[in-house]
Amino acid sequence: MLRTRAAVRSSLRDIAAGSTVLAAVSGGADSLALAAALAHVATKLRVTAGAVVVDHGLQPGSAEQAERAAEQCRLLGLSPVTVCTVAVGRAGGPEAAARAARYTALDAAAADIVLLGHTLDDQAETVLLGLARGSGARSLSGMAAVSGRYRRPFLAVRRTETRAACRALGLEPWHDPHNADPAYARVRVRREVLPALEAALGPGIVESLARSAELLRDDADALDEWAEKAVADGLLVAALSALPKAVRTRVMRRAAIAAGAPAGALTARHVAEMDRLVHDWHGQGPVSLPGGLVAERSYDRLLLR
Fold first, then answer.
1. So what's the pLDDT on residue 58?
2. Residues with Cβ < 8 Å from 141, sequence gap 6 or more?
3. What is the Cα–Cα distance from 271 to 248, expressed in whole angstroms?
4. Which of 85, 102, 141, 280 is at 20 to 30 A from 28, Cα to Cα?
């Protein structure tokens, strides 16, 4: 309990008195431990502490489980506690669709800060999934501790610690059957890949992956800041050519998204083909981009139309 409480207290150390802080609660051990820690520190921090319970409606009895989680939050002293039932679509697959529906509900919550219960283990799993996809530094940097009004206090807390906190407090977490379904890549990483890595390489893999994510986030933030400043020079070939590739491709990606290319559909391959128009141009024709865009070189400039 001490670790979970200290993590939430540290995450909220800059919050003004009177702010409304909500814990996003699924009913699992991580989010219940988060709710309990928030309830404990709220009085000292002088904030209004509540919870949002999201019911995805993906299995029978989910409404009852959501209400049960909400009641545990109320018994902890949290108020307001709201249950939101969401409709999960199909776009991007079941995990992405559920995430999108969940964040739509959380975005609508009346709060200054929303706390999320992602743990150190979740961070390590995210890094491994990014590696499997061949992602770049931004994806491999995992989840940010702070993203707008969202905060993740438990990114240095292990899942075993959140379970221990629930046991100590007499809380009864819900065990989502999806978290044991090997049809989901994250479940396979959790139950098969990480244990295999620890068996082969020794303990500490989870911590090492999370530490790598933190270092990569620092690098990605610096490169993004450089690219943001370089955008002001436009898409002049000479200016782009003078940039390191990691910055140049970021500038082109930002420009394409600003011109209307959907961020989720703009792949590394698209950006690489745009980059060839700058550093490996032999008179090749335009590059087709998502969203009906075309990138082409016109004399000393890269054009998006």
1. 72
2. 213, 214, 216, 217, 219, 220
3. 10
4. 141
pLDDT of 272: 95
Q: Which of 77, 65, 84 is nearest to 24 (CA)?
A: 84
Cis status, amide bond into 203, omega within 30 of 0: no
pLDDT of residue 83: 94
Q: Specify the domain boundaries for CATH 3.30.465 within the chain.
A: 234-304
CA distance 76 to 23: 12
Would you place residue 175 in the very low, low, confident or very high pLDDT band (cuts 50, 70, 90)? confident
For residue 75, give both structure tokens. 């018994």
Backbone dihedral angles phi then psi of residue 82, each to the nearest 5 degrees: -120, 140
Neighbours of 15 (CB within 10 A): 16
CATH of domain 234-304: 3.30.465
Helix axes 194-201, 120-133, angle to 10 degrees: 90
Contact 159, 33 (CB under 8 A): no
Extended beta strands in the chain, E state: 20-25, 48-55, 81-85, 113-115, 146-147, 150-151, 287-289, 293-298, 301-304
- According to DSSP, residue 110 is labeled -
* CATH topology assigned to domain 2-198: Rossmann fold (3.40.50)
- Sequence ranges of the chain with CATH classification 3.40.50.620: 2-198
| Number of Cα atoms under 13 Å in the Cβ half of residue 89 | 8
Predicted TM-score (pTM) of this structure:
0.88
Which band of pLDDT confidence, cut at 50, 70 and 90, is reported for residue 134?
confident
